[in-house]
Request: fold
Amino acid sequence: MPTPNLGPGPIHFPFFLPNGYTIGMVMQFHILLVAFIMGAAIIMAVSGSVPPHRQSQPWERFTRTFAWFLVETYSFGATLAVFGLVLMFGLYPRLMAIMASLFFAPLLAIFAAWIIMTYSLVAYAYLWPRREGHRVLHQSLIYVYSAAETVFIVLISMWTSYMLTPNGRSAVQAAFNATWGPELFHRIIGNISYAGFMLAAWGGWRAFRKRKHGSSLDRAYYHWVGHFGFLWGILFEMLQPLVGYFYVLRIRAGNPTTYYRMMLGDKAWAWLLQMALVGLTFVLSDLYMWLSIRRSTIERRGVAALTAMRVGAGLEAPSSDELRNYSTMKQVMQLGRQREHPPERDWLTRGYCNAALWALGILAVLGIMPESVPVLGSMTAKYACLIGFVVFTLLTLLIYWRRSRSWVWGNMGKAAQWTLVSLGVVLILLMIVMGGIRYSNPQTSVINGSMPLPALPVQQAP
Reply:
């Protein structure tokens, strides 16, 4: 009897690792790089659009620095993607036969978007010396790149979401499957948040390295980069619980088996680990804001005390440039800590920040309660914890933003610097765990080739 020719079977490489781990390590590294590139490009589209006459902060230095950094890392990220595709075709040939036939048109569009992304990003970096006099035209290149990468994400999400919630052989049905929309927004928002936190971590690390021997200009710049990246990171991170909630609902509707495996079955431990990392992200973010608010309070009191001392001695008040000097700022902080009986407003602010930090810590613990714990381990309780993360962080963020408008750039405490670095490490771990959960649960009928392959020839059995 004739038997269907299902194509070649999978191979195993390297021999000491399962195929899933091989693909996972390559693609996770690729995603960590590309997610940063895509998120940072959108941030640069904003930072590079600030007119020169309104640049009270070093927007141009920031945009130029990361234009070159993205170009240098873009090729490596693309190389990893190609290597990952080669591995997937070899390790999962039947799966890739199905996917390539269903998504042939989107794959062509993805390739076209990739070409546009490559040329526009390279041109943006290499034409920077000609930016003056052609500012609008030059900045439009990063807009083109951002638009092309958005198209890329829209199309690639069709492929990846179908692996989670496959819904038949029709190309249109496959593209617009149950989880395509939520995954698309989850990716875009997540890329921007991840890039923002990584920029903040870089700014915190560089500020730590420059704290004593760097120039006042460098200290102010890296302080501002940490602050600027943190704002992008936390603002978009606060949107993730809402998007993630609808994402989970669509997974449950489109593939109940995978949903219960992810949330309640043998993968539930990874879901709890993800909740722990999300909670730690919000706790560390609040800790950074609390440290910055407290330092700005001491700084304000110290500046007032130093100004009073100098005016009383018949001298001029310290200028903003003088305050950025390391020795002067050290004296300011010492005077600020010595002042007794701070204003009632400072006590109230400190009391709220302490309470918010404790509340976030408690919510982070409650969020990792297993399902076996009555009430506290339920999904409703976990969603309530996510809402609490956003509410307390938003209130602290309003205070942080107001204080940031008057503090001295360059006066960033060591604890705040290392908190930003820790946030970057946590975000990397969170990206890895989320990717592991997301891609370790593909539909088994797709992987093992039992889903009907399109238009394959039939060969006679011997």
